[in-house]
Amino acid sequence: MAKKLDKWCDINWIIFICITGVAAAALAAIFWDRMPLGALGAVFVAVTMPFHVLEEWKFPGGLHHFYNVLLGPGEGEGRELDRYPMSRLTDMITNIGLQWIPLIYIILCFFANLSNAVALCMMFLSFIEVLVHTGAGILTWSWLKDEGKKSFYHPGIATSWMLFFPAGVYIAAHLENVTLHDWIWCVCLFIIMMLICIPLTETPLKKWVVKQDKGMFAFKDAKYYEKYPGFVKKVDGFRRKK
User: How far is residue 13's CA from residue 147's CA, in Å, rounded to a whole number?
Assistant: First the structure.
């Protein structure tokens, strides 16, 4: 079971979300004039996620290395930078959730009069992606500029600015008659999505992953951060100072 799941977590799931993104884009193109703003926002997110994942994982990839160095165990604490706390399994679940939960929310736009709430939720997600990746880029630049890092680039920042940011701006520009009811539901929907995609999946799964054979669900290398071998030492030094 674990070996089959490990194989699925390699490339198959990325193909799956790419197919989902293409299908969502095609349906949106057909029914664009009939779709409320919240549904359009959800489609924007679903279509953007494959591009975002490909940047984080493959071209150039390396988000996991930043995540595990920054949020994983410190020096001498049994580090597994290739799979803890973010492994291919946990990141797969998170990203599939961030694509499919918005698509499920489309139902609320048509049958529960929550289009504005869903639109606000998708707008927040889009802008948060921009803020998080930009912040990570600034942080890594400040640590690695003496190793030759000349930009704020961080895996995921390009698609955040080129895709998520325009989507967020589009939603913000087309919102109308937003009420307190919409804001309350927006917060509820956003919290539900984040809880499902991050702590409720990552916390139990990361503990399960480290119990598997070494190398299971592990990333092959640090990708983008391979060219900055001093990154781990920089983070450890930052922790010691704190």
Answer: 35
Q: Residue 63's Cα: distance from chain center in Å?
A: 10
Give me the count of residues in the chain.
242
pLDDT by 10s per residue, the chain, length 242: 778 888 889 899 999 999 999 999 999 999 999 999 999 999 999 999 999 999 999 999 999 999 999 998 877 667 889 999 999 999 999 999 999 999 999 999 999 999 999 999 999 999 999 999 999 999 999 999 998 999 999 999 999 999 999 999 999 999 999 999 999 999 999 999 999 998 888 889 988 998 998 889 999 999 999 999 889 888 887 776 65
Q: Which residues contact 221 (CB under 8 A, 6 or more apart)?
A: 82
- Are 171 and 127 within 8 A, CB to CB? no
AA letter at 159: T
Q: How far apart are CA 164 and CA 130, in angstroms?
A: 7
Using the CB atoms, write b or e for 53-71: b if 16+ within 10 Å.
Answer: bebbbeebbbbbbbbbbee
Work out the number of other CB atoms within 10 angstroms of the CB of residue 144: 17
